[in-house]
Amino acid sequence: MSLSPALITETARSLLIRYGLPDVSMRRLAKELGVAPGALYYHVSSKQVLLTQVAQEILAPLRAEAADARTLMLRLRELMLPLRDSGDLLLLAYALDPRLPPAHVLPAQLRAQGWSEAEASRTTAAVMRFALGAIATEQNQRLLDAEQDTAVQNTADQNPGEAADEDPLAVEAEQIYLHGLEVLLARPSLRA
Amino acid sequence: MSLSPALITETARSLLIRYGLPDVSMRRLAKELGVAPGALYYHVSSKQVLLTQVAQEILAPLRAEAADARTLMLRLRELMLPLRDSGDLLLLAYALDPRLPPAHVLPAQLRAQGWSEAEASRTTAAVMRFALGAIATEQNQRLLDAEQDTAVQNTADQNPGEAADEDPLAVEAEQIYLHGLEVLLARPSLRA
DNA sequence: ACCTGAACACCGTTCAAGT
DNA sequence: ACCTGAACACCGTTCAAGT
Description:
mainly alpha, Arc Repressor Mutant, subunit A, globular, DNA-binding, HTH_TetR (chains A, B), AcrR family transcriptional regulator (chains A, B), Homeodomain-like_sf (chains A, B)
């Protein structure tokens, strides 16, 4: 089988899922496809557009879902959180396309709930920015914790006193996310 | 004068201000200091800790300011927005230290306004995530617009029909930021 | 049309060896 | 103690040349 834009983005996506964004390099991608690095540039104009394409594909399932704003925002977090370091990716894709799912349906949904057009579009932008910031923060915290864990591994082996707790940081992160959504998506009449 | 952690972070900061984050590499930094790249690692353990140190220094002025939450968050945006691509930097520094200014004083301020401790800490986390997401988004949009501008330069020269407008995207971005702050920092009694 | 080989101009980090 | 030189293992991108 020969190369194609679709095959390249699909392979990039699989690398992202398996190893995280830092391991999605053009050279690694080429190796995975059994091809010279330069070959990719016959099908894809740059790494940046390739990655935003990948982001769009990962979020594509959200286009088919008919759920309310809150649920869609929760799904966004579920989809992206496991992809290591993908926060930057999302931030870039959103800057390039402010209609990135789930932002593509939020304004219409909020309008249907009685929001004005100006309020609906401002709130969509605000809630997306909050979500992207929150997801990137959570991913960074996980990475940093993982580094610290491996660094402390030996000391922990010699000192198994404290039990492994339920990762209160992760639980807290989810509460923060829920809280932000609740406040930002609250009906405007409640604030007037 | 010889190398020191302080001199290195100060030079990194000046590179960041002058050229943006992509131009702050250890090798570029070494060249700027007239030293071999390896020399930096005698004073600094990694690029990551160096950059978070730089972020802390850039935000240090906020530690001295005695302003309300909203003003501090606006100052945060003013400080970071001009530093090209520094959003990632901020996201990393905040993940490493959730008490990064202005987060270090927000909980106490909110408590003084009658918020409960739980509400104050959750709101601080939410508003910081929103701000970091918003700043990163704005910086990315600027970068992408700049790329497009240089690409369209020639066509624009030949076609000077439309006047250069007031950059409505930037104005809109500020409104979104103000709106997010207003909603997230609204007194909890107004939502109960 | 599609791809290779090779190059250009970079990265972060380590480490023996020098002073 | 502090730094150099050189290496290791990478980057994104371009482009003549091949098929």
